[in-house]
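I'll show a record.
***
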Amino acid sequence: MEPGNVTQSSEFLLLGLSETPGQQPLLFGIFLCMYLITVLGNLLIILAISSDSHLHTPMYFFLSNLSMVDICFTSTTIPKMLLNIQTQSKAITYAGCLTQIHFFILFGGVDDFILTVMAYDRYVAICHPLHYTVIMNSQLCRLFVLVSWIMSAVISLLQCLMVLDLSFCSDLEIPHFFCELKQVVQLACSDTFPNDIVMYFIAGLLGGGPLAGILYSYAKIMSSIRAIPSAQGKYKAFSTCASHLSVVFLFYVTSLGVYLGSVGTHSSQSSATASVMYTVVTPMLNPFIYSLRNKDIKRALERFLGR
C-alpha cells in the first residue's frame, strides 16, 4: 500500500465492538443505558455536593471534580459510538479522530491525577489531623486541580502533535469503538519508533507516578491507623478513605488489566472489549461506590432529591 499524508477530509473507520448486524441494537441499548447512568449519577453527586454547605470541604471538592471529569471522559467516546450504530456508519473524520485522542488523554490524565490528590488529602486528614485545615486550604486545592489539568493538557497535546507527523496507508480501519492512540499509531506507514517511545514513557508516567503517590499515601495511612488504640477509632479512620480506595482499585485494576491483556493477546477486538471496563464501567460505578459507602453523600442526596 502506498503511504500518503492524511488530509482533513480523510476518514478512519471505527470497527466497534462487533461487526455482526444483529448485535448492533443490543449494543446501542446497553451503552445508551450505561452512558445515561454515568452522566446522571455523576451529575447527582456534583449537585448534591454543591447544594450542601457541610460538604464544602477539600475531599468533596475533589470528588465533585472527579465526577465532572468522569462525565467528560465517557462523553469523549460513547456518543460517537452510539451515533455510528444509529446511522450504520463507521466513519470518523481525521480531525474528529485527533480530537477524540486529545480529549481522551486529557480527561484520563486529569482523572488519574485527581485520584492521586484525593489520596494525599486522606493522608493529611488521617496522619496530620490537627494541621488538616491549614495544609489543605482552598488555594492549595484549586492549585492541585489546575496543575492536574495543565499537565494532562500538555501530555495530550504532545501526543496529538506527534500523530500529526505520521503518514498513513490507505487501510484506515481501527479495530476499536473509539480512536485509541495505540491503534491509530499502528496504522501509520511512516516510522513510529519516536511515537512508541513517547507513548510508553507517558503511559509509565501517568500510570507509575500517580500510583506510586497513592501507594505511599496509603502506606502512611495504614501505619497511622495501626497506631490508633481502639478498634472503633481504626474503623472510623479507615472508613473515611474506603470509598476512594475502592475507586482507585477499580480504576487501576481495569486499566492495567486492559494493558496487560493487550500485551498478552494479538486480538485487537479483545482489547477493545476490555477497554469498556475503564472507559465506561468505572465512571458509571464511581457514584454508586461513593453514595453507598458514604453517609454524608447519602444524606446530601436524600436532601437534594427530597426538595
Q: What stands out?
A: The chain is about 75% helix and 5% strand.
